[in-house]
Amino acid sequence: MPANSNSTETLPINHRDLSFIALFSLIFGSMMGSGIFDVPQNVASGAGVVAISIGWIITTIGVFALSWSFAYITNKRPDIQSGIYGYARYGFGNYVGFNSAWGYALNCLIANASYLIYICATLGNFAVFKFFGKGTNFDSVILESILIWGVFFIIKRGIHEAAVVNVIITVAKILILVALIIIFAIAFNWHQFMLNLSFEPKFGSVFAQVKSTMLVIVWNFTGIEAACIFALRAKRQKDIIKATMLGAFAVCLLCSLVSILPFGIMSGAEIRSLSTPSSAGILIKIYGLFSGEIIRLAVVVSVLGALLAWTMLTANMFFLAASDETMPKIFTKVNQRDVPINALFISSIGAELFIILAYFTNEVYLGMIQLATSLILLPYLLSTMFALKLVITDKKIDILSFIKGILAVLYGIWLVYSGGLKFLILSSVLYLIGALFYFVARKEYKKRVFANKWEFLLFMVFLLITIIAVVKWPHAILNPALMN
Question: pLDDT tens across 473-482, in order?
Fold first, then answer.
């Protein structure tokens, strides 16, 4: 049974300073990192253009259903201002809510480390920055550390000030992406596109190809929840809904065009052979070698924006969970500018530790990225389930909302499946590690560790699955990429 399902949050923040534009920029900035610039090769590597198009149609329906869930909860329960963590907690209890917050925050930390490595690896493609190599050597760690603490000091000056910087970077990203799409559209050749329409049997059935496409593009939509997580700072609650829906529309439109238009410029085989970032290779074919360097610089700008957005999200997630007593008290401290300073500092330390881990053992780190990234998908599923729960428990069930809720839950299940069931199993290890923070928080506030038998049962399930994982896949605990 959910705990405190009818209570209202009272969190220690006095500033409501994020406008619609700032909220939209948080969404767009967190979603549009490096992924969109590599979408052409990624989708083409497992599907033909017909299946890719079908995959995008299904994904768009799913993403809008997921976005509707956030919008519906915001409208029905405006008192819940802690985003997807709050949706899980108020819908299914404190311990479930904690795990949602822990999984989300851990994903953010490792995502930030991966962004830092990607920035240095991209710079390493330029002759003047060759010494950065693949982004995991000593020189890279120095630059990555500078960026971590540079972002720390930007956010430390104020969430509003950091959001302004994010807006500027987002405007630059949008202009770059629009320019890229215009170039692709001008170079688009209908005859070439028709040649690519032929079925590609080597990738399997249409279903297999659609599945491959959806598995690739699902990661481009992590971040759609950003406005909900900053609901406490939104000037107007309705801006959260508008920013979320517009963010979903903008990313679906831009990503689908970037992935489909290249089939009117190059053959499928040529697109599949492109190196990262593949959009640079397409631009080189149109305008020559120098244009590809421009894309690489654009990738660096985009990833810097994503790094800023995700650092803000990480710190805020720790703060929100601590503010209602499911994370240790240390995360609740705010500075004179209402910035959760301890949460921000610990988040920055976490990112630093992960880039150091990457320096010493890159192979293990890559496996950890796959594992932690899958953790963000469970909070999405819990959010869709809470939205459907609100629809069902309403005095009069709205049939259209019920259908949207069902679609959202189905898409949430698909997201968890797409993350990889093997990683879902191994994530129990990380949930058990996180439980230590939960136990500390419950002790600090002199509360029972588990509010009821269902929470204790969930903990035992995590424990049991962890034991099975350790026995069956001992090497995969340290490196999830080794799991068969």
Answer: 666 555 555 5
